[in-house]
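Hello forum,

I keep getting stuck at the same step: I have a sequence, I want structure tokens, and every attempt I make locally crashes halfway through. Rather than fight my setup again tonight, could one of you with a working pipeline run this one for me? It's a single chain of 232 residues.
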Amino acid sequence: GIIDTFFTHLSDEEKVALRTLVPEVGTNKGLVGYNKPTDAKEVFRLRRGAHIPFPNDAFKQCVLGCFEIFEHVMDCCMEVVVTSLGFSYEQFLESAIDRHTYYHLRKKHLPIDHSPNLSISTSPFDLFRYNNSIQSRSANCFEHIDPGFMTIVPCSSTVGLSIFDTQTGVWRAVENWLTPHEHFIVFNGKTLQDLSDNIYPSAAHRVDKAATRRVSMVYELRSQPNFVAAPL
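Reply #2:
Ran it on my machine without issues. Output:
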């Protein structure tokens, strides 16, 4: 597909040129566009409000179209969860989510006068390519818990995502039970766990090695910088 072609057909120099630093809270810098954090994986990151250095228009249209689908799925899932906790979903969005993400979820136009919290979204949409090479000494992705509210990952044609089953103490390769490119995997992050007072616990997960390369998309909804995740 278009996304796999981006990772495989562009030279390292061309991909590195598609990398942009963006301002974060305080003096920190974030990164959008291309990055290669280890020899095991490459990533192309999007965040609303950032200038994304797309390699071509076809790639741009494909990725932005996918981004909108992920935002719609996230919107539906979060509304179910937040209302189940007895809280107004609209009030939750207004207080917990950065303005760029809020306006995209609500399909509203951004105000002309951008205040500082409108600058860059905190929620990343990532395109990953795991090469699964026997020469790679790095793990694909170590066990971790995402910091945000919720994460969405579509089932890949190359199995790799494992989620820890706290009831049995076993890692579950969840994609074995799903249909590639048809099913989404949705799991909770640390902020939702704190917000729900452990009603919706976070999910430890990792990406295991496989026989063939893996291409995956991941969207994580994170809180705006000043949000305090106290139980609703």
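The radius of gyration is 18 Å. If your local run keeps crashing, start a new thread with the error log.
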